[in-house]
Amino acid sequence: MASPLLETAPLGFPWVTVDPFLFCVHHDDAYPRANAQMGPAASLAGRQIGQDFEGKDGWRMYHGETVPGFPQHPHRGFETVTLARRGVIDHSDSLGATARFGEGDAQWLTAGSGVVHSEMFPLLHQDKPNPVELFQIWLNLPAADKLAPPHFSMLWNRDIPRCAFQDEAGRGTEVTVVAGQLDGRRAPPPPPRSWASRPDSDVAIWTIRMAPGAVWTLPPASGPRVNRTLYFFKGEALKVADQVVKSHLALAMRPEVPVRLEATGACEVLMLQGRPIGEPVVQHGPFVMNHRAEIQQAFQDYQRTGFGGWPWRRDDPVHGREEGRFARHADGRAERSEG
User: Fold this and answer.
1) Identical fold at 1-11+162-279 and 21-159+280-317?
2) Chain centroid to CA 148
3) Residue 31 above 90 pLDDT?
4) Dihedrals φ, ψ of 296, to 5°?
5) Who contacts 84 (Cβ-Cβ below 8 Å, separation ≥6)?
6) Alpha-carbon gap, residue 91 to 80, rounded angstroms
7) What is the pLDDT of residues 241-270, one digit of tens each?
C-alpha cells in the first residue's frame, strides 16, 4: 500500500502552503510584562523598529513602534483567517469596523475588492508576561469573487467546535474545527463569498492537540481532488502511519485515506485542506489577483481611493487595557464575547 505521506518541507517563516491556501505564519512571541502604553516593558535597543522580525529575546515588534503588530496596510483578492490562541489582537479597518479578539477566538476577513486594516497585539498585563500566539492563514478567492465586497466574521471561542477523542488506553486528542466539519460537528459559517462557503470546496482548518502517547486516526477527506497538509509544529516526534517524524515539518498527505497518528510526548498539528481553485495566481505584496494587469489596477485603485480611507486617528489603534473581547461591524452591529 502506498504511503499516505507524499512529501515533506521544513517549517520556515512563513510556512509552505498549496492551493487554495496562499500563506500561513505561526506567530509565537514570549512578550514580557507590559508598560503603560501596552508595549513591552523592555528596551527596544538593537531592534529594527518598524521591521523587527528577528525574534530577539523570544519576541518581535513586527511593524509596530510602541505596541507590537501590524499598523494599517491594504489587501485585495483573498481572505485572512486569524486563529488567536493566546493573547489578544486589536483589529481596525477602513470600513469602520473594529474588534478585540483572542484566547481561542478566530477572525475571518474577506478582503475582496479592497480593505485596509491594522492588527495590533496590545500587552495587557503589567505584572506578568504576555505571551501571544496565533496563526494567520491566507485563503485565496476565485476570480469570480476577487472583487467581492469586503466582509469580516468573528468566530468566538465559545462557538468553535472542539471534538474530543480517546484511544484504547484513554489518552486524549482534541481537534479544534475552525473550518469544515468533524464527527458530526460543523464550524461556524465562513463569510458568504469565501471559497470555503462552497459545499464542494472541502476546506478544513483544524488544530489537533494530542496527549503524550495518544493515538488518533485522521479521517479521509470527502474526495481525492483535495490538497491536505499537516503542519507538525509542536512536540518531540509524531508517527504518521509507519513513518516517525522527528522534526517540525509540513507534511503533504494523500487526502483519500485515513491516517493513523501517534504522538511521542504532547504534540500539536495544524491541518489545512481544500479543493484547489486551479486558477493563475499573481501576487505582489498585499494584493493577490489572477493577472499582472489586475495587480497594477489594485495599486492604482488603492492610491486613488485608499479602499475607503482610514477613519482612525492612529495607524496602529488599540483599545483600552480593560476592554474585553468584542466586535463592532461596519453596519453598527455589535458582538461581545463571554469570558
Assistant:
1) yes
2) 21
3) yes
4) -60, -40
5) 101, 102, 103, 104, 105, 106, 107, 134
6) 12
7) 999 999 999 999 999 999 999 999 999 999
- Per the CB < 8 A criterion, the answer to whether 213 and 230 are in contact is no
CATH number (2.60.40.1180, 3.30.1330.90, 2.60.120.10, 3.30.1330.80) of 21-159+280-317 reads 2.60.120.10
| Grid cell for residue 334 | 455589535
The grid coordinates of residue 17 equal 502552503
**Residue that has been written with the C-alpha cell 530577539 in this structure:** 56
Specify the long-range contacts of residues 287-295, CB closer than 8 Å, at least 24 apart: 287/74, 287/75, 287/76, 287/77, 288/22, 288/76, 288/77, 288/78, 288/138, 288/140, 288/141, 289/76, 289/77, 289/146, 290/143, 290/146, 294/77, 294/146
Question: Of 281, 299, 298, whose CA–CA distance to 290 is shortest?
Answer: 281
**Nearest CA among 78, 136, 148, 76 for reference residue 107:** 136
Q: Which CATH class is domain 1-11+162-279?
A: mainly beta
Identify the burial level of 10 via C-beta atoms within 10 angstroms of its C-beta, where 0-12 means exposed, 13-18 middle and 19 or more buried.
exposed
pLDDT digits (tens, 9 = 90+) for 130-154: 999 999 999 999 999 999 999 999 9
Phi, psi of 292, rounded to the nearest 5 degrees = -60, -40
| Euclidean distance between CA atoms 155 and 267, whole angstroms | 24
